[in-house]
Amino acid sequence: MNVLEFTFLVWTGSLLAGFLGALTGLGGGVVLVPLLTLVFKVDFRYAIGASLVSVIATSSGSAAAYVKEGFSNIRIGMFLEIATTLGALLGAYLTAKVPASALAVILGVVLIYSAFVARRTRPRTETPDPPDPLATKLKMNGTFPDTSGVRSYNVYRVPAGLGVMFGAGAISGLLGIGSGALKVVAMDQAMKIPFKVSTTTSNFMIGVTAAASAGIYLSRGYIDPGLAMPVMIGVLIGSLMGTRVLVKTQTKLLRLVFSGVIVLLGLQMVVKGLQGGF
Amino acid sequence: MRTRQVDEEKLENLIANLLRLGVVLSACVVMSGAVMYLGFHPWRRVNYRTFQGEPDELKTAHGVVQYAFSGNANGIMQLGLLLLIATPIARVISSAVAFALEGDKMYLLFTLLVLAVLLYSLFGSFLIV
Question: Taking a C-beta distance cutoff of 8 angstroms, is the pair B78, B34 a contact?
């Protein structure tokens, strides 16, 4: 393929990934690495470099909107970023030591997992527990706009949340993805932060986490401008379009279909990885 | 309490605008590099099947800036990507300033820790590569 054809096809694929990712709330970043490696036969390291860059673009772009609406909690985000950035450094360091085929298997498992985790929600407890002393000391309890005005919430199990966040950061640095699904698990399931606050704060954190491994990727030569350019521009435009359409459409079926696509791509990564095909 | 809420709102607006500006700016730089890249050698074959790594001038912040200002299309695109990577860093710096102004020492410390990790990755990571 020549430069023009390759750029156009990668751009179109990334646009679609970004669009569907934003529309379904599953994130477009997860499908980029399989798309680039399986369809466009790009080397795994170039693929994760381009994917990581586009993750920063979508995170910063969409976080801007959510911060303004008052959903994301900047204190929670900043505190947990200590764990995610350190994890990301470790992940980015390890990615050069682990064979690409093993990384592909891990990515496949993460893909399948994230397709399922997005469908599960924590059962709401009617009577709120007393505030957690550590979370109170860290000034994490907050409020967010709700249909019935302003709702307040308490945060729990901070150490557990930190632990999962470190893991999420490591996965992000290892595979060049945002690992938003894992971040939401840490906040929603472990720390009992309301789902809407968890997802938006996670989105807010993804950019900072990715920036922590991006420097290392850059110095290793994983970030190729000719490849990252169409990926970043495509995903950015696609996700902006996706968020615009989001409010108007019924996304349940689309979400199911896209989850199916993610699971299939995940399985393919696992199978090809086990065969040593990377 | 009331002033604190106003401050937080201002901080949140500042951060939102900063993030948006960073993304728009970097996308513009990447696009202008892309026009040159696509215009100069549209028919060149691409090969990303095997990993060769990038040339040295595209691997450090300093090198990318120099390469871009010499008018190289790859350098300009990479500079745009570098600006994108710098956006979250600018966001963390602005949070640090805001926490300092608010007198929140605990969160200032947390923010500086995050900033240290980010700066280490961008400027010092060659130490472990």
Answer: no
pLDDT value at B37 more than 90 = yes
Block residue for tokens 């430069």: A3
User: Residue A27 in 3-state DSSP?
Assistant: coil
Q: Is A51 a member of any domain? A: yes
Judged against a pLDDT cut of 80, whether residue A147 lies above it is answered with no
* Domain encompassing residue A19: 3-119+132-141+150-273
Listed residue (A201, A198, A199, A207) closest to A236, CA to CA:
A207
Closest CA to A170 of A97, A88, A98: A88
Structure tokens at A179: 């690992």
What HEC string does A237-254 produce? HHHHHHHHHHCCCCCHHH
Residue B107 C-alpha, separation from nearest chain A C-alpha, in angstroms = 8
Question: What is the C-alpha separation between A120 and A222, in angstroms, rounded?
Answer: 35
pLDDT of B28 strictly over 90: yes
Of B12, B20, B59, the CB nearest to A218: B59
- Specify the pLDDT at position A197: 87
- How many domains would you assign to chain A? 1
Give the H/E segment covering residue A178.
none
Tell me whether residues A225 and B74 touch, CB distance under 8 A: yes
Residue A118: its pLDDT value, please?
A: 62
Taking every pair of Cα atoms in chain B, the longest distance, rounded to a whole number of angstroms, is 63
**A52 inside 8 A of chain B by CB:** no
Question: What's the ipTM?
Answer: 0.90
The answer to whether the Cβ–Cβ distance between A46 and B59 falls below 8 Å is no
% of chain B exceeding 90 in pLDDT: 59
Tell me the one-letter amino acid at A13: G
The verdict on A227 touching B (C-beta cutoff 8 Å) is yes
User: What are the backbone dihedrals phi and psi of residue A141, each rounded to the nearest 5 degrees, phi first?
Assistant: -65, 140
Distance from the first to the final alpha carbon of chain B: 48
3-class DSSP assignment, residue A263: helix
Does residue A229 contact residue B30 with C-beta atoms inside 8 Å? Answer: yes
- What are the residue ranges of helices labelled H in A41-157? 44-69, 74-94, 100-117, 133-137
Residues of B in contact with A208 (CB under 8 A): 88, 91-92, 114, 118
Q: How many CB atoms lie within 10 A of CB B23?
A: 26
Those residues whose C-beta lies under 8 Å from the C-beta of residue A56, and which sit 6 or more positions away, are A206, A207, A210, A211, A214, B84, B85, B87, B88
Residue type present at position A106: I
Per the CB < 8 Å rule, is A89 touching B84?
no
